[in-house]
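Sharing a chain and its predicted structure for anyone who wants a worked example. Both blocks are below, sequence first, tokens second.
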Amino acid sequence: MPTFDAAEKKVLIKRHEDGEPLKALAKELGVSPNWLSQKFRSWGVVPRGRGAATAMRHKLGQANR
């Protein structure tokens, strides 16, 4: 499993906070979404749930309907 230094953690957290799905980040890193979710939690970050992710997509105008 990958390890992350402080700068890499900061970038991953920022990308997720800016709207990138955890699933997409996990795929890019070659890890499972569950593994990355656990990492985020260990870093003190609560990953967005489905409802919050959907709301963010709508807010950003990226909803697929």
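Comments welcome. The helical segments are 6-17, 22-29, 33-42, 50-60.
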